[in-house]
UniProtKB/TrEMBL annotation:
GO terms for molecular function: 3-methyl-2-oxobutanoate hydroxymethyltransferase activity; magnesium ion binding. It comes from the Eukaryota. NCBIfam families: panB, PRK00311.1. Keywords: Pantothenate biosynthesis, Transferase. It is an enzyme of class 2 (transferase). This is 3-methyl-2-oxobutanoate hydroxymethyltransferase. Catalyzes the reversible reaction in which hydroxymethyl group from 5,10-methylenetetrahydrofolate is transferred onto alpha-ketoisovalerate to form ketopantoate. Pathway: Cofactor biosynthesis; (R)-pantothenate biosynthesis; (R)-pantoate from 3-methyl-2-oxobutanoate: step 1/2. It comes from Dimargaris verticillata. Residues 1-10 have a biased composition (Polar residues). The keyword Iron-sulfur does not apply.
Length: 317
């Protein structure tokens, strides 16, 4: 007869099929939903605002569980998730697909999404139509737009329609070719003044906050002090109203050049590669799956014996 085999059903919560959907994220009970008003209150209290990017259901959940104030579906996922050379290749349909996935995982943080290049530059009407799509189809709560005074009219049109807009000045990746590449902006007095005038124009147009990217610390600090809305820095020093990082960069997912401003908080790329290598090794040496821990039994010992009788006439290879 052999050793007695386990006959009970798998415990509740064990996934009997590897593609079964995960349970819905459980919001932290004590944490209230972050809104645009929450962001304003944090700014008034001089509490630093935290922003991290997310691009799908699991990263949306992770950002939420990490207690971030703002979850940004940035067009940077074109490079870090889709493998494009730049953000310019990203389409609106791709953005909406990732927005919806992120929104399903992120329930508490304020959700903001980039308008992809080419979806808002033609006219204020185009910008408004694109923004409506991001809110209605992408389930986001605000949009982010790159540019300065030249997009102020579009920002005004969108905010008048009731959609919050986060601006983005300094280094604007969608304009990398016009800027001559990914370069620090505002390093001279004249260029720094241009960043300031862009910030003031976007504030006047109705932006609820501004991302300031790759600008010297003293310039970002002064701009922050002159504005009535919060600034979110990335490569702009410690004196902005908050900070933003790309999740793959901060978690060390990629073994590649990192900008000076990025701090790596983990080595997840190495850890994931090591885990997969261990899996490959265990499959090859047949230590995984374990017959007791990872294998389902027959309904009973009698059913196993019946099965063996049923297949007696089959020949093994």
């Amino acid at each position: 007869m052999g050793a007695q085999r386990r006959t009970t059903a798998p415990p509740t919560g064990v996934r009997a099929y590897s593609s079964r959907p995960l349970d819905a994220p459980k919001p932290t009970p004590e944490r209230k939903k972050v809104t645009v008003n929450t962001i304003h209150r944090l700014h008034q209290k001089r509490t630093p605002i935290t922003v991290v990017t997310a691009y799908d259901y699991p990263t949306g959940m992770i950002v939420d569980r990490g207690q971030c104030d703002i979850c940004l579906v940035g067009d940077s996922f074109a490079m870090v998730a889709l493998g494009y050379e730049s953000t310019a290749s990203l389409t609106m349909d791709e953005m909406l697909h990732h927005c919806r996935a992120t929104a399903r995982g992120c329930k508490k943080a304020f959700k903001v999404a980039d308008l992809p290049m080419g979806t808002y530059q033609l006219s204020p009407e185009q910008a408004l139509a694109s923004s409506f799509r991001v809110i209605k189809e992408g389930h986001m709560e605000a949009v982010k737009m790159e540019g300065g005074a030249e997009i102020a009219e579009s920002v005004r049109r969108i905010t008048q329609a009731g959609i919050p807009v986060m601006g983005h000045i300094g280094l604007t990746p969608q304009h990398e070719h016009a800027l001559g590449g990914f370069r620090v902006q505002g390093k001279t007095a004249k260029k720094a003044e241009k960043v300031l005038t862009d910030a003031l124009a976007l504030q006047a147009a109705g932006c609820f906050s501004l991302v300031i990217e790759c600008v010297p610390g003293p310039v970002a600090a002064k701009i922050t002090s002159l504005l009535n809305i919060p600034t979110i820095g990335i490569g702009a020093g410690p004196d902005t109203s908050g900070q933003v990082l790309v999740i793959q960069d901060m978690l060390g997912v990629f073994d590649r050049f990192m900008p000076k401003f990025c701090k790596i908080y983990g080595q997840f790329g190495t850890a994931m590669s090591q885990a997969i290598h261990q899996y490959v090794t265990e499959v090859q040496d047949r230590t995984f799956p374990d017959p007791q821990q990872h294998t389902y039994p027959m309904a009973s010992e009698e059913e196993l014996e019946e099965w063996l009788r049923v297949i007696e006439h089959y020949k093994e290879k």
